[in-house]
Amino acid sequence: MKILKSKWMIAAGVMLAAAVFAAFTLGRGSQQQFFTSKVELGSIHDTVQATGTINAVTSVQVGSQVSGTISKLYADFNSKVKKGQVIAQIEPSLFQGAVLQAQADLQNALATEAASKAELLKAQAAAAQATADYQRNLALAKEGIISAQALDVSKAASDSDVAAVQSAQAQVKQATAQVAMKRAALTVAQTNLDHTIIRSPIDGTVVARSVDVGQTVAASLQAPTLFTIAQDLTRMQVDVSTDESDVGSIKVGQRVTFQVDAFPKQMFQGTVKQVRMNPTTVQNVVTYDTVVAFDNPEMKLFPGMTAYVTVPVADATNVTKVANAALRFKPDMKPDAMQALYQKYGTDLGAGGSGLSQKAGAAPQADLAVLWKVKADKSLEPVEVRTGITDHTYTAVAQVVKGDLKPGDQLATGTTTSNSMQKPSSAPGMGGTPRMGGR
């Protein structure tokens, strides 16, 4: 009996110990812990970051105005060319034949013109003779020497010769017009022949060649591009696609920096030359082209390279700065409890408390925010601040509106419980997903 009683006592003791341990463990598991970020004193650099493409300031696409087969090439990729220099030639045989034919047609027209002029002189002489005969016959007819019929024949001959003169004059005009037409045709044929020789329109460097010897180019629909020539690769530009939300912060004359994949450790500098007002919309995203001019004396950078551009917008030194995660944090508590904290520390914020301060009856202000300071006893104290510039990791505190905030204070950025394995991704050096409020 004693043995049985002893066993029951031992079992009861074990159960009591287990209950105490479980209660202690559950109590610890329900305790809330905070991930924090320290308030710092430092500098903030607000920048606009975008990508762009490096291009020559002036690029000319050299084409052909005539169709034919490329017979010779005098320039290749990276060739240095001068204005007027021959860089290619199209097979000229057909065009030379057209010039010869046009020359022959012109000579034929000139001969026809000369013959028509001679015919005009001949007609004018005949008309003069017929007119003189008619005048003599008219005098003889008045004296009754010749018959009226002879006079009529003489007058008809005179009128016919005068009409022949007018016809010869018209033929001369027609022949002269034919000469002008044939001369114009010769000019066109000669121009086409001249266009078989492709010349560089500017001084520069050939950055693209689109044809080879033996290739046929057809200029009937549009002028084909044979070469692309960049005028000066020592002075280039970056065409940057700037988001519409950032374009208002960029001004002409601003100094910018950029990097390229070819030289990842080197920083290049340029100046904003132009912010073009022509928008580009792709999938409802509106961007504007910002032109950044820069010098390329060593010709390290090539057209077409991708540039990662940083435009400094504002700088603040020796300012109090806080992590952006602290601005987004919102404690997990009931509205009544949050309202009590607001009233306790005099922030006078609404019970909704979304992290942005909003006075009752007043319009919300985007630069007002609430930070939650973790005190020594692990309790939270709301601090209302006015924010300044941000580098998208830290934000400057422009003014402490309500509460007390100084460098070294710990600000809540996330929460967890003691038996939870989650950690906030926003806390420095930690991962996971905290419970945060939106800013």
Short description:
The protein is α+β, with helices and mostly antiparallel strands. The protein has helices at about 1-30, 95-140, 150-195, 325-330, 335-345; strands at about 30-40, 40-55, 60-65, 70-75, 80, 85-90, 195-200, 205-210, 215, 225-230, 235-245, 255-260, 265-280, 285-295, 305-325, 370-375, 380-390, 395-400, 410-415.
Chart the SSEs and their pairings.
Elements: H1 2-29, E1 32-38, E2 40-56, E3 59-63, E4 68-73, E5 80-81, E6 86-90, H2 93-142, H3 148-194, E7 197-199, E8 204-209, E9 216-217, E10 225-230, E11 235-243, E12 255-260, E13 263-282, E14 285-295, E15 306-323, H4 324-328, H5 335-344, E16 368-374, E17 380-390, E18 394-402, E19 410-417
Antiparallel strand pairs: 1-19, 2-11, 2-15, 3-10, 4-6, 4-9, 5-8, 6-7, 8-10, 11-14, 12-13, 12-15, 13-14, 15-18, 16-17, 17-18
Helix pairs in contact: 2-3
Offer a few descriptive terms:
single chain, 439 residues, alpha+beta, Elongation Factor Tu (Ef-tu), domain 3, OB fold (Dihydrolipoamide Acetyltransferase, E2P), 6-stranded antiparallel β-barrel, 4-stranded antiparallel β-sheet, 19 strands, 32% helix, disordered N terminus, disordered C terminus
